Amino acid sequence: MLMELEQVLHMNGGDGDNSYAKNSSQQKEAILKAKPLLQQTMREFYCNSFPDCIRFADMGCSSGPNAFLPTWETIEALHKTCHSLNCKPPLLHVFLNDLPGNDFNTIFKALPGFYDRLKKGDDQNDLLSCFIAAVPGSFYGRLFPPHFLHFVFSSYSLHWLSQVPEGLISEKGVPVNRGNIYPTITSPPSVHKAYLDQFEKDFTKFLTLRSEELITGGRMILTLRGNQSKDESFNNYRPIFLELIGSALHEMVLEGVVEESKLDTFNMPMYAPSLEEVRNVIQREGSYNINLLETFQLSWDAGSSNGENSLEGKYARGKQVAMKLRPVVESILVSHFGNAILDDLFQRFSIRVADCIEKGLGVHTNVIISLTKK
Ligand SMILES: C[S@@+](CC[C@H](N)C(=O)[O-])C[C@H]1O[C@@H](n2cnc3c(N)ncnc32)[C@H](O)[C@@H]1O
Q1: Is-contact 5 163, C-beta < 8 A?
Q2: Is the pTM of this model over 0.85?
Q3: Nearest CA-CA partner of 37 in 74, 80, 69, 10
Q4: Dihedrals phi, psi of 290, to nearest 5 degrees
Q5: What is the band of 331 on the pLDDT scale with cuts at 50, 70, 90?
Q6: Under a CB-based contact definition with an 8 Å cutoff, are residues 338 and 271 in contact?
């Protein structure tokens, strides 16, 4: 099952209209939101021991401009720190990790431009040397030697599970999450439990594997999608994107466009946990001290180049937001439903997105975590 998901899951590659590179402004906002924490943590880490070389891993880097952004932020933090201390900056060894199906070629092609930009830094004497390597493989497996990494970063990736949870088909072979692709308010409790169990298993494994790879005192900054139905700062129930895709697929079943059995046997390998669910896993796993664990909100059209009022109407806005999700989930949907339904599905999805935005429900909850390896 793990191998199967690794083979189908990838963000759309290249730099065309449907690519992740062109449609990742929402995820960029999450990286920017974590920037002050990443930079402050990097400063603290460096000033603690003044290492000659810092080994930094970005887990689930994808491709496109976001793949380099955390590295730029790190370089900026180290450059400023060393400049103010009047000391020689450390070497930065960066490891960009993602699944083997990720479009690493687009990253490699952008590397010369990255190094050129680095050389153009205004203070040549202070130039920070940075070496970038790619590490293809699942972050639910070992990726580095023991006590090797100083810093682990991951943005918007850990809500992806290692597999579709077990237990979504009953002992009699009947699908339990019928008509849905994710645990929703209409799903039976066993579905919620199956998803939570899988998240706990996967996140525990991620923490344990990284604790073997990090040095003592090594730092980790993570962001991931959070559960908004349990977010008490909002009175109204707010659906997540996957519920809206599920409801669009359900409508297509009712119209005979999609086979019912196809929908009933599909479940998304993704889980957005609550803050408490994340805290429980970290505390139970036991390898880290928690420095910070919070949620933050981003509107669905965060990072969009069009201002609030510049789009023609609510459906144009819904479509723009919906199209940004397409490069993220397309590979998984196509592997189960085929290509033919995609345009229709995303049209229906975009109408639901537009309605939610109009009702003021177009907000994502995200979890941000800062940990120190004990
Ligand atoms: C939404 S993208 C986020 C990419 C980037 N960090 C950003 O913020 O724009 C999630 C990435 O996580 C990767 N991913 C999911 N599961 C993974 C796993 N088990 N191991 C490594 N990467 C994984 C996906 O392939 C995808 O590129």
Answers
A1: yes
A2: yes
A3: 74
A4: -90, 120
A5: confident
A6: no
Residue to substitute in 1, 99, 105, 157 for testing ligand 1 pocket (most ligand atoms within 8 angstroms of CB)? 157
Give kind and range of the element (H or E) at residue 322: helix 314-337
Give yes or no for residue 332 CB within 6 A of ligand 1: no
- CA 157 to ligand 1 centroid distance, Å: 4
Q: Where are the domains of the chain?
A: 2-6+18-228+267-303+364-373
Residue pair 65/25 in contact (Cβ under 8 Å)? The answer is no
CA distance 216 to 148: 10
Q: At the top level of CATH, which class does the domain 2-6+18-228+267-303+364-373 belong to? A: alpha beta
26-79 pLDDT, tens digit each: 778 888 888 999 999 999 999 988 999 999 999 999 888 888 999 999 999 998
* Model confidence pLDDT, tens digit, residues 191-228: 899 999 999 999 999 999 999 999 999 999 999 998 87
User: Ligand 1: does its nearest atom lie under 6 Å from the Cβ of 277?
Assistant: no
The two most distant CA atoms of the chain are separated, in Å, by: 70
pLDDT surpasses 50 at 307: no
What confidence score (pLDDT) does residue 291 get?
97
